[in-house]
Write a structure and sequence with these properties.
Rossmann fold; four-stranded parallel sheet; binds iron/sulfur cluster; 19 helices; Fumarate Reductase Iron-sulfur Protein, Chain B, domain 2; 3 domains; 9% strand; alpha/beta
Length: 396
């Protein structure tokens, strides 16, 4: 049995109970290991112990052992965290791979004891009523008609709420790439994957969302589900199985599909000469949460662009600031964290920041404001710089 199997469907508090005494409060989680550079966005923003992982774990321990009593004043330090996972990279203690589990456990207990934050409760209600956290009119399968997609297919494109209702250029670029590469895919009547609820301790409605999405995916006959959202990718491929769902499909991030399509020649790069300098932002839920660092870079290496890495990259990447419910409840922290990332990107001299998550793209663009740097998604860049396979009649 894997270590995480014992945590399937765990009761709130199980992670805290298991790791109660393992944090030695050394503070290593606060800074980039051996570099002593900032690493934790919430700790940097608020500048107080309980806003770092070390303080949150201490708080969890105090609450679990009844040395601290529940009170509204605890909520900010519990929820003003982007769940970016940088602390898990820096910590070297045995519980290092479970710090996010502990923080999310703490959130579930907080919701049970004092209720969800108003901003989080608001989007939970929207998810329940509109099936997305944005209170947008639900797309059923209109996209299927619009793009003339089949009823059943080998692949499902799970669009994700941010692409579907806010960053629609990412949805449209992804559809365009899949179509021109001749991928057999369809779009199902998807509901929010549940990520915003799981990350904010509001787990109760997630089962219903998961069952709806599972039924929709099953009825498509697909063997593979592609998503361009890092949050959906983590939830569909990791959280659903931890919640006990058995679905005989493979979940992949769209970057993997793009890489393979270019390698196979189904997508052809339109030019080999370009003076476009870009820098790649690792989304936390794709990188640190799922270990996907190189695939988006492999896509970029096949495109006619120069990639200049930011100093903080891969597992040491600075968070965009939006995750874990921070964008809705702690906008100031989300923007100041995003501004720090934009600054790091501008120091490379790149003209564009390319990310692989609609939520990162959105927050980084909000943070960049009028700064002279564009923020785009990998799907947009791939769509712009590729064409489909040459028709056989045109082959030499
Ligand atoms: S979480 Fe890890 S790095 Fe942070 S104080 Fe505890 S043991 Fe040290
Ligand atoms: S998940 Fe990120 S924001 Fe939260 S405590 Fe860890 S490093 Fe800080």
């Amino acid at each position: 049995m894997k270590e995480t199997d014992s945590m399937v469907n765990s009761e709130p508090g199980a992670h805290i109970e298991e790791w109660l005494h393992s944090c030695i409060r050394c503070g290593t989680c606060k800074y980039q290991f051996l570099e002593y550079e900032a690493s934790c966005p919430s700790g940097e923003h608020f500048g107080f112990e309980t806003y770092f992982a070390s303080g949150r774990i201490w708080l969890a321990r105090g609450l679990q052992t009844n040395q601290i009593q529940w009170d509204d004043s605890l909520l900010q330090s519990i929820f003003a965290c982007t769940t970016c996972g940088a602390c898990e990279v820096q910590c070297h203690a045995p519980h290092r791979g479970h710090i996010i589990d502990i923080i999310e456990d703490l959130r579930r207990i907080a919701v049970e004891n004092v209720g969800a934050l108003e901003a989080h409760e608001k989007f939970r209600n929207y998810v329940e009523e509109y099936h997305n956290p944005y209170k947008a009119e639900h797309h059923s399968r209109e996209l299927v008609q619009e793009h003339n997609l089949p009823e059943t297919a080998e692949n499902v494109l799970f669009v994700g709420c941010t692409s579907n209702y806010r960053e629609t250029q990412i949805r449209d670029a992804t559809i365009s790439v899949l179509k021109k590469a001749g991928v057999d895919f369809t779009i199902v009547d998807e509901f929010c994957c549940g990520s915003p609820l799981l990350r904010t301790g509001q787990n109760k409605s997630v089962n219903e969302l998961m069952q709806h999405n599972a039924d929709a995916i099953r009825s498509s006959g697909a063997k593979q589900v592609i998503t361009s959202c890092a949050g959906c990718f983590r939830t569909l491929s990791k959280d659903y199985s931890e919640l006990g769902l058995k679905l005989d499909v493979e979940f992949i991030h769209s970057s993997e599909m793009f890489r393979d399509l270019i390698r196979a020649g189904n997508l052809r790069v339109i030019s080999s000469a370009s003076d476009l300098n870009i820098t790649y932002h690792d989304p936390c839920h794709l990188g640190r949460h799922m270990g996907v660092y190189e695939i988006p870079r492999e896509v970029l290496s096949q495109l006619p662009v120069s990639v200049i890495e930011m100093k903080k990259n891969r597992d040491n990447a600075w968070c965009c600031g939006a995750g874990g419910g921070a964008k809705s409840a702690y906008e100031e922290m989300a923007i100041s964290t995003g501004k720090a990332r934009v600054q790091q990107a501008m120091e490379t001299g790149a003209q564009k920041i390319v990310s692989a998550c609609p939520f990162c793209t959105r927050n980084l663009r909000d943070a960049a404001g009028s700064d002279e740097i564009d923020v785009i998604d990998l799907a947009e860049l791939v769509d712009e710089l590729t064409v489909g396979r040459k028709p056989l009649s045109q082959s030499p």
